[in-house]
């Protein structure tokens, strides 16, 4: 069963079966969607605010004494794109009930930088 709801990304969360977390209004969002023990995490940005630059999504999962850390990054090039939010990065992790998950999306364009994060 898949379920979700929206909450501010800057809050410390008790990790329910699934969540969508948004740093809204803001330059980016992080979405968490759980299906069983699989958690899909998306880093999302507004192309009107970030038509170009670089991004990095960092995810850390702690469960039963183990730690898993992954990072994905790349170039943002949304010039000429629609104004809808764009998914920059998507990852899936195994995160059983009781796992602690932290995700942070960092956006950069020259000296300009923004980030959003979720802990659950």
Structural shape: elongated
- Record field, number of beta strands: 9
Number of helices: 0
Strand content: over 45%
Radius of gyration: 14 Å
User: How widely separated are the two ends?
Assistant: 19 Å
Average pLDDT reading: 80
- Low-confidence stretches are 1-24
Overall structural class, as computed from helix and strand content, comes to mainly beta
Query: Helices and strands, in N-to-C order?
Result: EEEEEEEEE
Considering DSSP H and I runs of 4 or more, what fraction of the residues is helical?
Answer: under 10%
Regarding quaternary structure, what we see is single chain
Q: Largest sheet, order of strands side by side?
A: 1-2-3-4-7
What can be said about the biggest beta sheet?
5 strands, mixed
Describe the structure.
- The protein is mainly β.
- It contains no helices and 9 strands.
- The chain has a 5-stranded mixed β-sheet with strand order 1-2-3-4-7, with no helix packed on it. Strands 6-5-8-9 form a 4-stranded antiparallel β-sheet, with no helix packed on it.
- A hairpin with a 5-residue loop joins strand 2 and strand 3.
- The two termini are 19 Å apart.
- The N terminus is likely disordered.
Task: Give a brief rundown of this model.
With 120 residues, the protein is mainly beta.
Keywords:
61% strand, 5-stranded mixed beta sheet, 120 residues, 4-stranded antiparallel beta sheet, mainly beta, elongated
Layout of SSEs?
Layout: E1 6-8, E2 20-22, E3 28-35, E4 38-45, E5 52-63, E6 66-77, E7 86-94, E8 100-109, E9 112-119
Parallel strand pairs: 1-2
Antiparallel strand pairs: 2-3, 3-4, 4-7, 5-6, 5-8, 8-9
């Amino acid at each position: 069963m898949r379920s979700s709801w929206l909450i501010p990304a800057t809050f410390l969360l008790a990790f329910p079966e699934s969540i969508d977390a948004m740093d809204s209004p803001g330059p980016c969002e992080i979405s968490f969607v759980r299906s069983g023990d699989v958690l899909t995490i998306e880093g999302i940005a507004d192309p009107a605010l970030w038509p170009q630059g670089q991004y990095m999504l960092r995810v850390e999962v702690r469960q039963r004494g183990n730690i898993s850390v992954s990072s994905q990054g790349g170039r943002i090039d949304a010039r000429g794109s629609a104004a809808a939010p764009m998914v920059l990065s998507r990852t899936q992790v195994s995160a059983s009930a009781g796992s602690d998950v932290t995700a942070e999306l960092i956006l950069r364009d020259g000296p300009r930088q923004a980030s959003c994060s979720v802990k659950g």
